[in-house]
Amino acid sequence: GVGKDLDVFIKITEASSIDSNTSGAKKFRYVCPGIEAITGSVPDLTSSAVVHTITVTGTNFGDQNGAIKAKIRKPEYIIQANPGSGEYFVQDAVVLDQSYGLPNTFTKDYRLVFDVPPGFGNELPVVIEVAGQDSASSCEIPKPLPIGDNLDYTKLFSFPRPEITSVAPVATAGGVLELTGKYLGPVGSEGMNGITVLGHDGKNITCSNPTVHVADVGAKCDLDHGVGSNLPTTITVGGYASVTKSVTSYKTPTVQSISPSVAKGGETITVTGTNFGKSGALIGLSLMTDMDTKNSDQVHFATTVSMVTDDTQFTFVAPVSTGLKRGVQVVVPYGDGVESQYHTTSVVGLDEPSFSYLPPTITSMSKVSTSGGVVTITGTGFGSSASLSSMTINAAPCTNLKVVATDTSMTCSVAAGTGAKVAWELNVDGQGISGSDFSYRPSSIGSISPTTGAKGAVITIAGQDFGSDAKDVTVGLGSFVCTDIAMLIPHTKLTCRVPEGEGIDVPVLIDVNGAVSAPGKFSFTLFGCTDASAENFNPLATVLDASCVFPGCTNAKSVNFDAKANKDDGSCILDPVKVTMKVKLPFQDYLKAPEFHQNVFKDDLVKELGIAKERIMILGATPGSTVFDFYILDDPAKPAAGVASDLQEKIVSNEFSISYPVVAVTMKSENPDDLTPPIQITTKEGEPRVSEESIIGIAACTGFILIWALFYRQCMRSCSRCCGRGAEKTHKVAPEPATGYPEIFPSAQGKINYGVLQNV
User: Fold this and answer.
1) What is the β-pairing status of strands 268-274 and 361-365?
2) Per-residue b or e along 65-86, where b marks 16 or more CB atoms closer than 10 Å to that residue's CB
3) How far, in Å, CA of 282 to CA of 276, rounded?
4) pLDDT class for 751, splitting at 50, 70, 90?
5) Which residues on neighbouring strands pair with residue 666, listed in sequence order?
6) This model's pTM is above 0.70
7) Is 253 in contact with 276 (CB distance < 8 Å)?
8) Is 440 within 8 Å of 512 (Cβ atoms)?
9) Is the model's pLDDT at 92 over the cut of 50?
């Protein structure tokens, strides 16, 4: 049997009811168990793991498994630090080795096996307890532990070094780190010294409140904020540290949304998700070209990443690139000095968020020769490489396509062709655009031979970019179209036949499928009047004929005769009419104010004759009363002869009335070829009157004549002396220049000066 404090019963007779219940109470105990050997109790000097079970050979184990407990004493520092928490790691499940014997027939020993209970420490005494008595202090006669002065390594046990097998990922914001391993000790924090995690930069990441939550196999702690994977991790239990393993990882970043959904290079992109960390400097980005195959053409591109919200949102500047559904792969931590083993990379796939680059745009395309050449394409959205781009112009591939200025300019080689509205298509990384505004270079005209010609003449035009097919070419000569176009040398020389037309230096335009050249010059051969001063001048005429008409004065005797004129236009200015008019005005009165009388006389004439004042030119005045000599100047609109005729008619009909009574008038044209005698008119004022005074005068004259006859010689000498001294003087008036005449008659400008007519 086993146990202690057992009652001893003594019965005198079989029928007796009296026993030793009082006197024999708790008077008996079995001998305490003893340990002779522990298998596998050699100290763990090499830090290697030991077996998981212990085999104990000893005495007085009894034969009841349920009465036996195996105990491993806790480290002394734990017992002292936590009094009352128990001194042993206890295992109740103990199995007696019945095959060995209960006890062994020869040695009288017992043997048992038990699984090592959760615990920790090195060189710890093993104690066997049987029914309340153990092999140490819990015995009637306590036995010393095999430590200190009684050190016996054969009776000591060392727990295996703790091992880490795995660590569950933790959010980058921090959280509970759950570690799975072996030999982690009992539940609680009694033997837990700590869990150490080193960051990617070699610095310790705090993991507070370490504890074992699943005996021997599960521990946890509160891990601080961080990023990275495969971080070195160590757990220390009972002062015994595990082998460091790179097993701790923060959770993989995830991308939940990308905004905007369409962007261009240089634009700010916002990414929302989880586990991005706190530092944009530790975020590396890649753009995926194919979310299915997870290919990327922009691996860890240079950009500026800025955190918006720790762990969940950041922005970056989109690199120059192209394409549809570009996924963003996030790598943390990333940067100089960060080894790749620490990277955590987000998952990409068809169901992951993405954004697309704006489709390409073309703002201009350079023109190329009709013989083909390199076209420069300017626009946006071309990316940095043309490896994923293609272009066709006029349904033919534009070869050797390449980006020459990142995102904004490409070049490619265009095949020969013609036209100003040529169709094109551009595809950049799956995004296509098209148009019909490409233009081959318009023709340029170098020479035209001949530059003049009549209908049917053939002209040769040399230059550039005529194309190779005459059917594509139209040659315009002004508003007329050249016929029979023939291509002599492709792209550089052609001929055509001059159509019926007219014009000098008309523009020559070559239209090659809508691409129109700068103009040359050509003149149609045309007979006509080429003199710009002719009435029928034809600006389109190139050859002078006899058809010119020159209006003007054709009268050779006119002062404004135009020798070039062959069509009289009625502008001839004829010679003036000279008029001598005697009026009743004492000459002495006239001499007192000649200018006044001239003005009055001229104003009266103008009023009566209805002509301009400038047409009256007074040549002078002589005595005999007063006799005015003046010109009536000619005007084609109202010739001088007509005005003289009007004057004659008015005087004859007694309708001529001026300030001075007219006595006599003489009129004569100044034309030396005019042989018509002067017109002479005597008015009633000039007729002689027969009166008493006349008779007396006649008688007196008769008497005078008789006396003169008697005294002839003496009388003549006296008369000569007397008359020579007292005779009236003639007043010569300088003719007034007709200064206004040229203004009235512009056709006479520069041809006549009536101010010198007094010389006629």
Assistant:
1) unpaired
2) eebbbbbbbbbeebeeeeeeee
3) 9
4) very low
5) 580, 680
6) no
7) yes
8) yes
9) yes
